[in-house]
Amino acid sequence: MAESTSGDSSNSNPTPPPAPVPEHKSWADVAEEEVAEEANAASASSTAASSLNVDELTIDEKKKATKFLDEPEDSNIQAVTSGDTPYNSASTFEDLNLSPELLKGLYVEMKFQKPSKIQAISLPMILNPPHKDLIAQAHNGSGKTTCFVLGMLSRVDPKMQVPQALCICPTRELTIQNMEVLRKMGKYTGISSECAIPADSRDALPISKRAPIMAQVVIGTPGTIKKWMSFKKLGVSRLKILVFDEADQMLAEDGFKDNSLRIMKEIEKVNPHCQVLLFSATFNDTVKNFVSRTVKKDHNQLFVKKEELSLEAVKQYKVNCPDELSKIEVIKDYIFEIGENVGQTIIFVRTRNSAKMLHKSLVDLGYEVTSIQGALDNEERDKIVKEFRDGLTQVLISTDVLARGFDQQQVNLVINYDLPVKYTAEYTREPEPDYEVYLHRVGRAGRFGRKGAVFNLICGERDENLMAKIERHFGTHVTEVQEKNVEDYKRALKEAGLLQ
Ligand code: ADP
Ligand code: MG
């Protein structure tokens, strides 16, 4: 299979001011891709939902083997199907008429037994003619990747060596991760694929000097894809399926809206029947309203009720810390000590500077941690993620570059060193939490129904207000853990199912 060897020039964004002032956002050229990677999704304002008939779809919930591997129990998905195309949800992968090569990929490589709920409901809509567009929302960790990867692999004609499926993702990490899933699942299909991300080496051949892309599936970030298209190296005239992962961010005003729309329009011009799939765990009302208008009129939709979005599987806690130093003490003396053997941990910070400072403080104290943020060069980013994936590192500090989509089943603990705040917040008196980013961060633990816990480190009145708003928004109570009470932390981890 082809590997990406070409790419864009690497970015060099200026070091941001310390928290809480958000990083300067530049909308120019390649820098846009990197900066917007850490941007948050747009804020919500309520608008009326679709007036189509809403059918509650249920699937056969056979007794599951182990409680530990359950899907989120609140996965109550509402489907709005357009027209009169009947769809039956699939209780087995065989129900989907997949090729024997794909079935083998699912069972042998992926070791999946049966479709998750979102897969059971969405796959018949994706795979069956007339291949309508689909907007699909489902919980973090519920298996959305498989929906669109199977969609892409099934729709590609193996005999035609041209790009037929295109998937656009917000970050290079998610691109690489989705590509790994596609190559594993599609191992026996012989389908070729290529990543469209900024080059991992400065001496890589520029796109202008490269041969046109022949790979049948292309997965990439919007800046690079747009660039390849404008250099006429990525032809889209034979494209059958276009996917946006983390679609709400891809189409949000303060996300990748401009690039995504440009790519979509370009494809539409030459290829009006290309199927468009939009996937995310979050679609706030503004984005929901907008995306419904960007896809074809007779599209199908799947949505989760807002109040059912917070993942019950991941227990949420808050710790009041008098100052920054005590946040670090809470992490090392309590969470690391007590949670030593509970799995891997991601610590989310708001800014690149915060990532650097926390990293330095923990390393100076003798802890082995790594950190990732958009300002690192690509090789470094890839290396840090790989080490974490391989289990060589247990603790990863990250900006919101990994808040969405990152799938590592061993992550059981998430620490919000800083709470996520909307980028517009600096212009308002009272900062607004970024609810979507909060949900996505929490969703890095508890993958596919596994257990998990999140500790929110609260410092001062500002954070208290933010936390209260988050609790109100999701209608959940976040239990307080006393800063210096060992028993409290133990109780919390036990309650989360992470300690005996
Ligand atoms: P999402 O994109 O919905 O957040 P992912 O697609 O990343 O979730 O899937 C989360 C995890 O669940 C992955 O590790 C994936 O391998 C696993 N998974 C997905 N579908 C199944 C299935 N049908 N059976 C078992 N595990 C699954
Ligand atoms: Mg995902």
TrEMBL record:
EC number(s) reported in the record: 3.6.4.13
A molecular function (GO) term: RNA helicase activity
Source taxon at top rank: Eukaryota
Amino acid composition bias (Low complexity), ranges on this chain: 1-13, 38-51
Keywords recorded for this protein, A-Z: ATP-binding, Helicase, Hydrolase, Nucleotide-binding, RNA-binding
Domain Helicase ATP-binding: 125-301
Motif (Q motif): 91-120
Statement: the UniProt record of this protein carries the keyword Transport: no
Ranges for domain Helicase C-terminal: 330-497
UniProt domain DEAD-box RNA helicase Q: residue ranges: 91-120
Coiled coil spans: none
Region named Disordered: 1-54
The keyword ATP-binding appears for this protein: yes
Protein name: RNA helicase
Classification of source organism: Eukaryota, Viridiplantae, Streptophyta, Embryophyta, Tracheophyta
